[in-house]
Amino acid sequence: MFEKKIRAIMILEMLGRPKEHIINVMNQLVQEISTVKIAKVINSKVHDAKPFENKDKNGKIIPGGEDLFTTFAEIEVEVNTPIDLLGLCFQYMPANVEVIEPEDFKFKNIDFNSMVNEILRRLHNYDAVAKSALMNNQLLAKKLNEMQEEKNNRAVIQDSSISLTTNPEKKSKAAKKPVKKAKKK
Predict the structure, then answer these.
(1) CB neighbours of 80 closer than 8 A, spacing ≥ 6?
(2) 181 assigned to some structural domain
(3) Is residue 107 within 8 Å of 2, Cβ to Cβ?
(4) What is the C-alpha separation between 8 and 74, in angstroms, rounded?
(5) What does the DSSP assignment read for 119-156?
(6) CATH code (residue 62)
(7) pLDDT one-digit tens code per residue, 54-101
(8) Distance of alpha carbon 170 from alpha carbon 148, whole angstroms
(9) pTM for this prediction
């Protein structure tokens, strides 16, 4: 299919807390990638975690996330085919990929079709998951609104019954009449 193996550098990023945890998880991720059958890890480096600074377009720090840390790893991999590289990308979602070798690619249309169809298959799967999550979210929001309305209606009914019995200005006429004592025989 392809004459040369493909060498690429993947950049994986991670955000979380505490600092030691994200470094540990990133190291585990690099180790996991080294066991994947479609890839051979040539070199890897996990960088030290640093405090996360969430900045706006002007570089001003946005409050929140003060206790979060960020780290990244550079992983040089070797794979047999572009489809294998795409598979790694879909599996591990690197922030960036740079192909080092080969410099030029020559594809037969059947190989190119396979790559495009693999991308489309994965995108359809992700789209289905996203649509399912959206529908579940909408259903939960609807049920939550119904429960809130039901709670509000119960509160209104309870409030109105309390006000009817405790409002001194709205006593019934029967309550204002003196009670007659029964005569003794």
Answers:
(1) 1, 2, 5, 6, 38
(2) no
(3) no
(4) 10
(5) HHHHHHHHHHHHHHHHHHHHHHHHHHHHHHHHHHHHHH
(6) 3.30.70.60
(7) 777 777 766 666 788 999 999 999 999 888 998 899 889 999 999 999
(8) 31
(9) 0.63
